[in-house]
Model the fold of this input.
Amino acid sequence: MAVYLLRRLALAALVIISVSAVTFVVARVIPSDPAALYAGQRPTADQIEAARERLGLDQPLYAQYIRFLGDILQGDLGTSYKTKHPILSDIRTFLPATLELVIVSTLMALLVGVPLGVFAGARRGGGFDQVTRIASIAGVSIPTFWLALIFQLFFFGALKLLPLSSRMSNSVALFNTFPTITGFYLIDSLLAGNLVAWRDAAWHILLPAFTLATYPISLTLRMTRAAMVETLSEKYITAARAQGLPEHDVLFRYALKNAIIPTLTVLGLSFAYSLTGAFLIEVIFSWPGLGKYVTDAILNVDFPVIVSATLIVTVFYVFINLIVDIIQAVLDPRVALR
Amino acid sequence: MKPKLFSAFSLVLALAIALAACSGTPPATQPPASATEAPAPTAAPAQPSVLTIANSTTFPDIDPSTSFSNDSAVTSNIYETLTRYNPPGSKDVLSPQLATSWESSEDSLTWTFHLRQGVKFHDGEPFNSAAVKFSVERTKTLNGGAAWIWGAVNSIETPDDYTVVFHLDYATPLDLIASSGYAAWMISPGAKDKDGAWFNAGHDAGTGPYTIESYEPGQRVILTRFDDYWGGWKAGQFDKVVIEVVEDPTVRQQKIESGEADWTMELATENLASVGNNPDVKVVVNPSFQNLVGLLNTQKPPLDDPKVRQALSYSFPYEVFINTAMSGYATQARGVIPAGMYGSDESLFQYPFDLDKAKSLLTEAGHPDGGFELSMTYVTGNTVEQQAGELWKAELAKLGITLNLQPMAWEAQWDLGKGDPANAQDVFVMYWWPAYVTPYDFLFNMFHTEEQPLFNLGYYRNGDFDTLIDDANALSGGDKAKAESMFQEASKMLVDDAASLFIFDQSNIHIVRADLKGYVDNPAYSHVVFAYQLSR
Done:
């Protein structure tokens, strides 16, 4: 098991280093002068040269890469060419908004996807199963940007029920402020005991989180259904039913307990997927998160931000994969022996 | 264990959503009562009046020394300059702001500004000559953004608290420079240990009518009025200003029409007519000081021949382009200096669209049937530039000239342009706007001889022209009328030489609520709302 763990860790480190090298080189060879970018909108030749020296761009590429790695190991992701802000502090500002969105959407996937999957599995082949099958296939295959626009048109345009964009109304920002502690508005407003702001934040997150959740909901639904179908054919379920236990207990206390494990694994991976999926959603809903930050960086060819963000997403994926690997090895010791 | 955890999670979230769903009208459509935690600014009335600006862009940098972008929407309400450029049509070019009067020596090498007394910075520091010296020196030292506007300043003297003397290395109109919406802001010496990160965390150190109350990057800035503002406060002026980032034009339109916003910009031009029909909303159209040019590669055949360049200038369908691509919200440029700006010339020749004339010029130049190819670079995704290229391409085809359109990221386009003119593009399309309002900004940057190309991307070389504009600039600090006629002469040289396609002067289109009083557009401070001038 220890060898297995070490092997996984070494592999994870290798992946991260390779990705950092590839993104770094690709970002540098794109035809464009980073010093001119750094120097701003309408720089003088002096300003461009000063920027070149300051950024160490007069050094050879390998020296720049080593410096970049050294900075990262010291917790310094560099500064954005466009805004000159330290990237780490920018990420601290924008990441909570993204995490809040992704966490809420993952919870939605659990809350909606699992029960629907249980019922669909329990009534296999029935009308409900058919309807959820079509809905979940649609949920997986419809592009989220299209869905986002349709949701906006419907819930904001037609029903005037939910806000169109952003995390909070101006009125709340003006008159019902609360201190930023975690950066999660739903939590910070509760900590401040400010229910008006909490309700406002909840109304704002509903639509983007649900849009983002359509994929994981569908995925969870399908996974749970499949696992339930399998579990329900087990002998212990037949025994439980034979003993006259209520159907609700059979489904949720006995069957789901075993059926949920693969679903949770998939949901873990889809959490990482949602992190990148959120990029598009954030742009459409003007959600000031990491996705919007990175999109702006890409449009501005802001290399350090692009490289750092790629690295962060890579680390996130690798970390979650590692956890999944470990869980699998714990659940099934044969995995570690392979 | 896991299902238990899951149930607990589910319960919490279900409760949360239920609570949200049951708690009545969502605040999206109706602002919640402010009673619970109404702020208590000292002199403000119980219900503060709020001006809401729906801005189309974020604010990358609100450090007053280095900011050189759309941030001026924010900085212009927090900071002030020594002088202010007046909107076109005003009696004087400049009006006093933090300086009450100023004069220059005969040779324009020494400038003296007399400062307004009784002005306080938001941090309580007094505004005086030491503060002016500190501000300009901080900006020069950081050398970011538009810091180069102070390039001529050699030393700054402070003979007394309210007099400041600038000694220059070369003559330049420092009074105009001091009015710039970038890099000319006065900053409190109390911020001498603060860096860009401090400012960008939502702090400020200005003298302006408003100060930052809160800043959520990427979302909004909330400004609140500075009670000790030297200009004083009258009834009806706004207590708070929300500058909200709304990047989607449809959302901005929705906000202005519903009254959620009082001012916005950059709506789809095809929707402006219907927006203007709404009696609660006004569409304010004014000339801007931004224009679109197509710099012609004067160093590379066939465009090294002025006759060919003139032919090209006759071949662009100005009117059709402005009426279609711009929905009429632009005017054909008269040379490179935008209409309404100091130095512009209403009698300057404009090339009309005339293919016959173009053909005869091409024949004179030895290209009766065209027969050559040209490349035109512009920024990918800029539909205006793209349409200009496509319409022009169709006309050029009639003359036997093939125009190859090359959309590129700005950085790549600029990189190609900065390279060897012999391998560079034939036509470089870009927008230009001044860092401070002077014709010299346009004439010098795009047409003054450069050994190493930076923004003279048509590689224009003309010694007489260089001397003329340098002299005019030196003179413009003193004899503004003489300098203006020299700038006009230089501008005419460019038109005669057809150094560039002068395509259009852009219009500033701003959409304001009809009940907003006192709104005046000032092209010198592009897309800036001076909230202090407004009331409802």
Observations:
- Chain B touches chain A through 71 residues (CB under 8 Å).
